[in-house]
Amino acid sequence: MPNWRHNVFMFKRAIFTSLVITLTLLCLITLSVNRTLNIWFSRSAMSLLNSDIQLESLWLRSSSTRDIRVAYFIQVSTSNLHLFNRLLYRLYDTQHVYAVHFDCPCNQTTVDSIIRAIQMGNFSNIHIIPHETLTYSGISLVLNTLSAMTYLLKYPAGTSSQKEWDFFINLSGSDYPLLTPCDQVKVLGEAVNMIPTSAYINFLQIFENHDSEYRRSLLYLDPALTMNRKLVSENCLEKKALNPVQVHPFQHYFNFTLYKAEAWMILSREAVKYLTCESFPRWMLASFVNTVSSPEHYFVTVLKGSSIWKNTIIPFAFRYVRWIHPKLPRASTQHPFELDLHGDLFWEDIYESGCFFARKFSQQDSLLQSRIDSEIAGLNSTLLNDLFQLPRLEESFSISLLSKKKQLLEDKRLRGYFCSSAVNFSYHFNRSLETMRALITRHLRLNV
């Protein structure tokens, strides 16, 4: 082969070899780059996915309702002792704590049977506080409420946990729940979620315009302060309790504003500590010793008179109470209407109210109570029917239904049985949530 041909062949061979090597290297580089990119994209995608998960988790944590616990205080008198059985059953929950006071004139045999049944049923979160002599509308009712607050601060909420309760709710035996405790704490949880300083939120039904100055212009003597049960009973029978004895010599020198609210309230734990432990509330308590209707004035005047607490009050206590109705003329408004005597007349307002409780009731196992249970609270009618098979409270106090409820509540799978469904909220529960949101929004706007 001539030399020039040989040289051409070798040149072509070198070019071909170079091309093959170059292509091979390009393929290897491409595979390596693809692999690197795939790994990078996979990691990026996983990182983004984890980020989304973390954000979702954060959102869930921020939007979840805090585990709210409540301390309930029930004042039972002779006029509503027969209602206590059903009230306690409807209000009882293993996650909350209860203090009950029975007025001295209550039938002692009935009270003893209740205490014995609670002890035998091992209801460790129900506490019967010692008897105190009380006068309706007197300072003794305030003292009794303060006693219950002090008592409840010593105990955790629930039957087994050591968690402190968050809110204090006082009731009379004539009240009846419109929402289950499970749903009440959901609504209170809305306030906790909306306000960072929710520990300082309190709910009182305040009367902005009131003509009550006359109540401290006269001196009233509360016979309960003698701690003499017979004296109180005699004065109440003769309607002489809390009659004014003389004009207050310093009536024009009071250096604080008198506020008025209903006696029923929802207070934060911190407010309860303040009322029971600090000096200003004690001074105010002494100022109200001889004032009539002091339960309507003391608590709201103390909180509104404090620079720390005056802006923590939401002017709504989630209670449905009717004092006046155009179809029911009355000469006096000293007591609200008994709702179960005019159930149909008030039903629509109760249904739309969004309140936690309604008052007052007087009939045992009334049709209005049953309608509230089924149409507002959404309770199971089969379980409720068992209630009517129990012996009447005057005969004995049966704890069997309450024990059954406790057993169901202690089973985590069955707790939801006593709460509104997450999918199918009741209309009244939604109204309650809407009311809470509106109140808190207004409160935030006013306190910017």
UniProtKB/TrEMBL annotation:
Keywords: Glycoprotein, Glycosyltransferase, Membrane, Transferase. It is a single-pass type II membrane protein. GO terms for cellular component: membrane. One of its GO terms (molecular function) is glucuronosyltransferase activity. It is found in: Membrane. Its main location: membrane. This is Uncharacterized protein.
